[in-house]
Amino acid sequence: MAHIIILGAGYAGLAAARKLAKLAPQDTQIDLIDRNTKHVESIELYQVAAGTAQPDDISFDIRAVIPDRVNFIQANVTKINSEAKTVDFADHESMNYDYIVLGLGFRSENFGMEGADNYSYKLQDIPSAEKIYQVINSNIRNYKNSQDPNDLSIAVCGAGFTGIELLGELIETTKILKAKYNVPEIKITSIEMANQILPMFDAGLAQYAVDFLSKNGIKILTGAKIKKIEPNAVVYTTDGQEEDQRVYASSIIWTVGVSGSDVIKDSGFNAKRNRIVVTDYLNVEDHPEMYVIGDDSASMDPNSGRPLPTTGQLAIAQANVAAQNIAAALKDAPQKKFSYKSKGTIASLGASHGIAEVTTPHLKLKGKTAALAKKFSFEQVLFEVGGFKGLKK
Question: Could you give the residue range(s) of every CATH 3.50.50.100 domain in the chain?
Answer without folding.
Answer: 3-108+259-340
